Amino acid sequence: MSKYIFVTGGVVSSLGKGIAAASIGKLLEARGLTTSLIKCDPYLNVDPGTMNPFQHGEVYVTEDGAETDLDLGHYERFTEAQISKDSNITAGKIYYSVITKERRGDYLGKTVQIIPHITDEIKKSIRKGARESDVDVAIVEIGGTVGDIESLPFLEAIRQLRWEMGEHSALNIHVTLLPYIKAAGEQKTKPTQHSVGRLREIGILPDILMCRTERPITKEQKEKIELFCNVDKEAVVEAGDVKHIYEVPVSLKKEGIDDLILKKLHISREDKDLTEWRNFVLKRLKNPEKEVKISVVGKYIALPDAYKSIYEALVHGGIANNARVIIDKVDSEDLDNPRDLERALKDADGILIPGGFGARGIEGKILAVQYAREKGIPFFGICLGMQVATIEFARNMCEMKGANSTEFDPQTKYPVISLLEEQKSVSGMGATMRLGSFGCKLSKGTNSYQAYKKDSISERHRHRYEFNNQYRKQMERKGFVFSGKNVQRDLVEIVEIKGHPWFVGCQFHPEFKSKPERAHPLFREFVAASIRGKDRVGRPRSQDILKAEEVGTS
Ligand code: GLN
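Above: the input record for the complex with glutamine. Below: its predicted structure, written as tokens.
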């Protein structure tokens, strides 16, 4: 039976609760415990799949095809926990399920209410997501800030759960803020006192306070917080700002949070330090030997969270190559002529185009692909990035003027990217894409094979449109390489360009499977190729490369 850690947030949002929960998972795993991690989101959307990136940031896709909150990405990057559709519980999902049951008559004529029906459903979902019989500790993060109306049923549910479990089986960690007021030259504890007071009103007494702060917390302040918040001063943990998120487990370890948790949960485990994490991840992150500049050409570059997993996977690729990856964010809408293009991309050692939806910014992305192809700059296209790479090659190398995806131009004469038959009849927007993990076979002698070093892989998808097989032969003749295929459904999953130093477009999202200590093979190799290309004098044009090589028709 798992023990539970409930993580709530107080005072303001964006305190990094997700990273805190993930770091706790990491520390407990280092002590030999198995974990599960769950995120509860109090909004009414069933999942974030239909939300705009400006509302929500990245949509993180799990192995089993759920579209989830980006905190689950942190959970997977920091821990070995098994993350699935059950790991993200939204109020939308809970209400949907309760109302469906009500319509079926499952409640046998009773009045259906928030308490007990919604709270029971939340408890049941948490227990399911926790995988109680399989893991030692389940970490449950409640989204939002204490005091929000919409998170009340979730807080009531975790209060009840803790009560039902009995002593030493669950604990509450409250992540809070100690703002520093310059004029007073002081850190303020009052917002934390209020936030804990709010929790107490609903029957939750935090066991540990994790205080986010710019400055070290003094002994006196810890004592003050202890007195006003009913939390031992040893359990008032300083969570100071750090430069890299991967330093958080180490800084929390210094505060002894793992010992504190084990003590409160009556678990005894040998102490372990984070030597490997420190020596490999942090050392290379802080003092890398090399530097490389990757331009990410996207539509949501103003928003740090929109391409979260991609940015992290690039950092991992840097760690694997002992290099600092400088990410240059380029707005594809700013690229519409050669001068802009040259200005924006002239220093790029590698160019990456991430996933996306809708026609806005597409032409700029196509120009960026052309720039990478012609100048022999390593290129990595992900999902939409692979689709625009296909469009560019069709237009500029295969004389298909106006080639496009039917997503952007339904009337195009050359629909090189189009909908599969099964997608044509889809009318609903939620969870109707090709989602989750699918197998892919790689061809030997390609960049992809060289990266993975095996013929069969599986990767996560989230898209509606696919390469149109009608154009396979024609494009292959001109040097477009289909290096990864889904054999069961005869779908193109990876494209490359013959003779280019490193040009890979994949229909799936490799960024979801990258970890700091185990960079995804494609990110690792993309960064490696970008480092190799960095010092090359006078980048060759790929037409020349194509001419020089024998262009096959394999
Ligand atoms: N809009 C494209 C599609 O639906 C690409 C999606 C993506 O990049 N995730 O196929």
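Notes for the reader.
The chain has two domains: 3-279, 289-418+430-537.
Residues 355-357, 383-384, 407, 462-465 surround glutamine (CB under 6 Å).
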